[in-house]
Amino acid sequence: MIRLALPVAAALVCIAAAPAPKEPPPSAAKQCFFANSVNGFTNAGKNRIHVHTGPRDVYLFEVAACPNINFSQRLALQPIGGGSICSGIDVTLIVPNIAGAQKCPVRMIRKLTPEEVSAMRSRRR
């Protein structure tokens, strides 16, 4: 019995001494928003837009192929599943065109850092 207790006790000490798994840094955590919080958008280059969700919150959207997105004055976000929008698979962009509307799948969404938002605003001035 003592022979069995020693290896078990040693294993428990090793487990207790092992470092705890690290939490992801806040910047790596998912950053989500709801479609009803969107208050505007701006062109960010070919097949890219900046979606504004607050005074300091801006998200970069990249779409797979959406020729009218960079010329559109309006667009709509169609959430998939009705919940929060955290990644491209959570939303489709609806862009008006001559034939009515075009659905544009979103490839990637990323929240801009405060520094990126400041730089973007200073370029627009």
UniProtKB/TrEMBL annotation:
Q: What's the domain of life for this entry?
A: Bacteria
Keyword terms of this UniProt record: Signal
InterPro entries assigned to the protein according to its UniProt record, in alphabetical order: DUF6491
One Pfam family assigned to this protein is DUF6491
Point out the signal peptide segment.
1-19
Name this polypeptide is given: Uncharacterized protein
- Natural source organism: Allosphingosinicella indica
